[in-house]
Amino acid sequence: MEWERSEEPSAGWELLAAAQSSHSETRSHARALLSNSRHLGGIGLAETPYARKRQPRAEDEMKAPYGLDIIEDCCECPECESSSFCAFSPLTLESLSKASHKSVLPAGAILFVEGQTPRGVFIVCSGKVNLSTTSREGKILILKTAGPGEALGLSATLSGVTYETTAETATPCHLNFVDRKQFLELVESHSEIGLHTAQCLSRDYQSAYRDIHHLVLTRSSAGKLARLLLSQSVREGDESEASCKPTPMTHEEMAMRIGASRETVTRLLTRLRRKRLIRLDGPMLVIKDRTALEALAV
User: Of 13, 37, 67, 254, which has the highest C-beta tally within 10 A?
Assistant: First the structure.
């Protein structure tokens, strides 16, 4: 209440601490409060950019905080043609842009919480968002990292059932939000949006099926970690040993992605280094022997 009334810093820190609590109910409650706050970049339920269309200003043409390029009109976005969700015709894109409310959020911001009533769809314009689920014991499993062009909360928004996961920004993000009522109206009036929504849900289903298949059939934690490193690797140029560099992740995040403890991940990475399958290049982990790692992931 103090945070909402006067933006009291100590109250804000208490909410943030509770959002990281090991007690699942405390954590979920705090994250729900934070996601609904009117002070967090306009993503709350109060009358903020979601309740009224934001008018363009001269400052919008400048780079926003975190070095992100903010594009107020979706029709002017250079990424829309290659986007997995927003590759619409100009007329449809204009309708989507008018219904969207833009916001810029720092890393660690909560978009929605598992079990929360759906408010609408979030479209990632830039940045990355982690989707996770939490057990009753407070164990967190990161299911996916969404990137630019992906729409989050589609299934819950269409069905009216609560969000299946918790969405938290992994990096500073530029996001578009479309209220549930407006999104349903867009789906009814624009067949393109309905088709793209169905395609995105189909891809999500196929991805979830593959993840479950790998998680269940890959018996060892070492195999799951090897698969994770391979799935996150980025090839750079040739096929040399240093050409495959997994995107930077902490041991804690790796553990959340494979359903293991941080200590287990640290021990497995040490074992892979001793076997010369990987090496550290400063803070970057480099795959030295991709073939051997693929054999371990089977």
Answer: 254
